[in-house]
Structure formats: C-alpha cells, structure tokens
C-alpha cells in the first residue's frame, strides 16, 4: 500500500513524516484558526530542481509530499558464461 512521505524543514532541521492518506489530509487541512500541523500559510512544492531547491533550508514553510513505498535493493547474482560447441 502506498504511503505519503512529507519532507519539510523547521528551524534548520529536515524531517520526514510518513502518513496514510486520511492522516495526511488531516495534517494539512487548516483548522478553524487556519492552522495545520505544519503551521500557517502552508505551501506545497510541486517539483524539486536539484540545482536550485534541493536544500531544504531554503524551502521556508513549504513541504514536499511524495506518494510511494519504501524499497530496499536486493542483491541479484548474475552469471555469464561463454560456450563453444
């Protein structure tokens, strides 16, 4: 099942939270005072330009949401033989 990974920066510290869809919607939806789990005036990053904004220290109050699953690379043994008849 896909999860939602939220990457943000607060006071120079980068953090990643993992949510189910309903949990995320609750976290980013403003309450009656306009406050979300990530504060007021929440902005969303729509793309990561690796030469410009890959450093989260420059994101301000913006968050990046990635939908997916964690993968772990597995070692695969490959044997290549040459044969002549």
Outline of this structure?
By secondary structure, the protein is mainly beta. It contains 1 helix and 4 strands; from the N terminus they run ββαββ.
Give a structural overview:
- The protein is mainly β and 85 residues long.
- The chain has one domain (3-68).
- 9% of the residues lie in helices and 28% in strands.
- It has one helix at 21-28, and strands spanning 3-10, 13-19, 43-44, 62-68.
- A four-stranded mixed beta sheet has the order 2-1-4-3.
- A hairpin with a 2-residue loop joins strand 1 and strand 2 (13-19).
- The termini are far apart.
Task: Name some characteristics of this structure.
mainly beta; 9% helix; four-stranded mixed β-sheet; 85 residues
Proportion of beta-strand residues? 25-35%
- Output the radius of gyration: 20 Å
Q: Could you give a short account of the major beta sheet? A: 4 strands, mixed
Which structural class is indicated by helix and strand composition?
Answer: mainly beta
Mean pLDDT: 88
**Count of domains:** 1
How far is it from the N-terminal to the C-terminal residue, by CA? 50 Å
Strand order of the largest sheet: 2-1-4-3
Sequence stretches where pLDDT stays below 50 over 5 or more residues: none
Output the number of helix runs.
1
Q: What gross morphology would you assign?
A: elongated
SSE ordering:
EEHEE
Helical percentage: under 10%
- Total strands: 4
Helix and strand topology:
Elements: E1 3-10, E2 13-19, H1 21-28, E3 43-44, E4 62-68
Parallel strand pairs: 3-4
Antiparallel strand pairs: 1-2, 1-4
């Amino acid at each position: 099942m896909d999860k939602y990974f939220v990457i943000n920066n607060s006071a120079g510290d980068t953090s990643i939270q993992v949510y189910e869809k309903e949990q995320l919607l609750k976290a980013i939806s403003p309450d009656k005072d306009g406050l979300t789990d990530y504060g007021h005036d929440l902005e969303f990053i729509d793309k990561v330009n690796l030469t410009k904004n890959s450093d989260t220290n420059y994101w301000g109050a913006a968050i990046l949401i990635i939908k997916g699953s964690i993968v772990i690379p597995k070692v695969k043994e490959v044997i290549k033989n040459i044969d002549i008849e």
